[in-house]
Amino acid sequence: MTAGILCIGTEITRGEIVNTNATWLADRVTQAGLEVTEIACVDDDRARIVDMLRRMASEHEVIVSTGGLGPTSDDLTSACAAMAAGLPLVRDVASVEAIRDRFRVMRFTMAPSNVKQADMPSGAVVMPNAVGTAPGFWMRMGRAKVFFFPGVPREMHYLWETHAEPVVRSMAREPAVQLRLNTFGEGESAVAERLSDIEARYPGITVGYRATFPAIEVKLLAKGRGARELVEAAAVDVRTRLGKLVYAEGQRTFVSVVADAVRARGYRLALAESCTGGLVAQMLTSESASDYLVAGMVTYANEAKTKLLGVPEAMLEEHGAVSEPVARAMAEGAARAMGVELGLGITGVAGPTGGSPDKPVGLVHYAVAYPGGVEVRHRVFPGERARVQRFAAFAALQLLRTCLA
Fold first, then answer.
1. Per residue in 360-373, is it b (16+ CB within 10 Å) or e — as a string?
2. Could you give the 3-state DSSP secondary structure of residue 377?
3. Burial class of residue 21, CB neighbours in 10 A (0-12, 13-18, 19+)
């Protein structure tokens, strides 16, 4: 049983936005037990949308489509779905009232054009949208069941999880089980080399990889009877081989793992960043952090390192700002300045300028001060400035997690 993903919108075909919807949906449809064999995009052109829907409906059992359910003139999906299936377009009264209620809750004035979002092919099954104005719907078209979602990721996620996923799972001929292990510390090829014989050792397991820079996700997939047991057995082997590279399973983020390690000790954290320019603070505060993160200081100039962190001027003159002693002093100074148990310091040459033969672009020193002492590391990270900064931020937080293990 195969599935196709269709993303509708000129903003996608022109490259004006990144098509994250396709990646997210392909992963969820795969986990539901179907084989995704096609991901397609089409612009906001009525004839091309209709042709694409008819062609995909003749080749797949399931199509999942996003985009084009808004109130504007270029939102054509509902009308095109009706045309492709040879059905009239009708207005769903209950959806009109739901849209009006949504605007009342948001305290916005509803434009007359929003009523258009309640139009859908006759006989379609409505998927009410509790987090947005546009309802989704699904219908039969040719050999396929076709699910239509708004392009807004948050709304699409809700409609998939609430309405569509149970229907798609019920269609799968073989139940699928997929387990994801998230790793950091080695590249995709190095991780794959360690796991090169997993599929041979566990017949029925498919191993996949997904790079979400700088982390690598290892995916273990099995279908049919005994799939869960097979996946769990393979996962034990993978964890043994990768060791500390594995930081989480499933949907857990790297930040949440680090944060939980700090919380488990009841510690508080202060940051002193130079070359990363506050990236570590941004990463940590992308999730709830008020219970453990006290401060983040971007001490870019030597003067700031001295005044805010107490890094001795003599140390800076002797070793330079990018050095192990300064990284250590930054971590200790951050903890001391804020009166907390943990301090993290990062200093380096992010580039593209500023490098030298003994301190090349990409060199980063990072340190963690904690009740057990101070740990300092350094690496030369490859790539342009943004990659160096992100590598450094991850590596420093990985060191913090290791110190608390």
1. ebbbbbbbbbbeee
2. strand
3. buried
CA–CA distance, 353 with 79 (Å, rounded to integer): 55
Please report which confidence band the pLDDT of residue 326 belongs to, taking 50, 70 and 90 as the band edges.
very high
Question: Looking at 127, 153, 171, which one is the last position of a domain?
Answer: 171
For residues 117 and 222, state if they share a domain. no
Tell me how many domains the chain contains.
Answer: 3
Q: What is the pLDDT of residues 358-376, one digit of tens each?
A: 999 999 999 999 999 999 9
Please report, as a single letter, which amino acid is at residue 96.
V
- Kindly report whether the global pTM for this prediction surpasses the value 0.85: no
Grouping H, G, I as helix, E, B as strand and the rest as coil, residue 358 is coil
Structure tokens at 233: 């057995």
Domain that holds residue 389: 256-404
Q: At what angle do helices 77-85 and 46-57 cross, to 10 degrees?
A: 50
Sheet containing strand 206-212, strands side by side: 206-212, 215-223, 176-183, 246-249
Residue tagged 């229907």 (tokens): 167
